[in-house]
Hints:
This protein is α/β, with parallel strands linked by helices. The strands form five sheets. The chain has a nine-stranded mixed beta sheet, sandwiched between helices. Strands 7-6-5-3-4-8-9 form a seven-stranded mixed beta sheet, sandwiched between helices. β22 and β23 form a beta hairpin. α4 (about 105-115) packs across α5 (about 125-130), α7 (about 210-220) packs across α9 (about 245-255) and α10 packs across α11. The protein is globular and about 75 Å long. The chain binds adenosine-5'-diphosphate. Adenosine-5'-diphosphate binds near residues 196, 241, 316 and 429. Adenosine-5'-diphosphate binds near residues 427 and 429.
Amino acid sequence: MHSIRTTMMPVPLSLDRLLERAGRLFPESEIVSRLPDRSLRRHSYADWHRRTLALASALRMLGLRKGDRVATLCWNHHAHLECYFGIPAAGGVMHTLNLRLAPDEIGWIAQHARDRFLVVDDVLLPLYRQFAAHHRFERVIVVPFSGARVATADGDPHAGEPAVDDYEQLLARAPAGFEFAPHDESDPVAMCYTSGTTGKPKGVVYSHRSTVLHSLNCALPDFVALAARDVVMPVTPMFHANSWGIPYAAVMLGAKLVFPGPHLAPEDLLDLMQAEPPTLALGVPTIWFGLVQALDAHPGRWRLPAGLRTMVGGAAVPESLIRAFARHGVGVAPGWGMTETSPVGSIFYEKPELRGRLSEDEWFARKALAGVPAPLVEVRIMGEQGPCAWNGRDVGELQVRGPFITGSYHGEAPGADKFSADGWLRTGDVAAIDEHGYIRIADRTKDLIKSGGEWISSVDLENAIMAHPAVAEAAVIALAHPKWTERPLACVVTKPGATVDAQALRAFIAPKFAKWQLPDAFEFIDAVPRTSTGKFWKARLRERFAGWQWPTDEGDGGSPA
Ligand code: ADP
């Protein structure tokens, strides 16, 4: 037999090539950042490219070695984007710290990752000081984001204290003529810890290869459809799964970027959208609930830009939100993902074979699912008896595999609770897939309600309740029940000025559910507690209602029996 070998060049996939491409091909594309005083700072891609290489050169000058971790504690802005490419260009690994975590937790994560340097916004120095005792960085590089002068130590820092540099001064004194070092495509470029919604944070380490493949996916028309003509507004924090990987893809294509900085209130985002109209904005549902409410509360004050589409994910996307956006002429691309999946694992698009076969209402319902798997992502639903059929009904654990899906966690032996024996990631999400490949996330394993031996999806109940016009938000939790194991309690936030009672809500959702699936009680609360990435924090709600007493009569609750 004659053997044959590929004739293709063994050139590694590399972020450095995307950086160079952007500098060469798109020098005039723009990066706009909103500063703490709400003014806008503009950089061309040419400026950004030069500054990113200066950062890489400066890090090398400071003695950064291959594989060293450089943490960032920053809002979304141009300098954070410089870190995205400049740190890996110097051979380092960018580690985005989540500024919404408790200071102790941030310190624990920095220590666990053994971060060597820190890049921090001046406005976040007070936060840094709260966890500085937990982990000693060798150097702290301060971005003068607010424009205030950075207090750097003259001469040697005190023993035990990190050296402090001003980011801009560092860039100014970086040696010219930076040269990229050769690297392997599996070398790490960035790391991110899961936000720990359901447990201790775990570190995921992305490679050149995984990041480039994920970026290419983002440009596919059936997925995010990112293109050079786009104006992208990443509201998703750059510390939340790398703002869903979109900044890398935007740079690859030369798309204009508009970063909101620290101003994420609905009114701020709407003002920014008037000044720098985006064509693609990304964020978790919470952000968009607030934005739509502000729009509806002040008719005529703002207009959503023509042609805007939103990418929404990180939590279930209620049909009511998709319909609200449609009323404002905005398209929605709901997707599913995890820090572990780089993160976009699936996205909704209209499969052509279904065009003309579904009514408008059926399309809306389908949009509220989690989309179809992205290219290169394999999915399966694992039931107790093995893989489930794709029939839209059989539910089990969603498991995924692919070249941008993590196969382990930093510093941990791969445990059976997170990875199957045959190497798939166990997502901890309970889902079904229909015959067309659309994924329906029923719940997180930990949020499912086990009632009388049957399961109830809290997500389905929430979506049904949130469709009521008086409801702003709803989270449904399981509470222990002496007879039925658990029963659902709905925690409801009404819209300002609106009223509705439990009976009316129960009647409103009753047609969509079996009687035994309906919540036994509705509690009206001021706000649903949020996690650090803006998701409903059901663990907090369960704590709050831990002492809950169900009425002693047995009611209709329980199981279908
Ligand atoms: P954490 O696990 O700490 O919340 P991630 O941001 O990685 O951090 O969250 C991933 C989880 O978010 C998924 O496992 C899933 O439960 C949830 N999620 C993401 N997208 C969706 C979606 N479209 N529908 C329902 N749940 C989603």
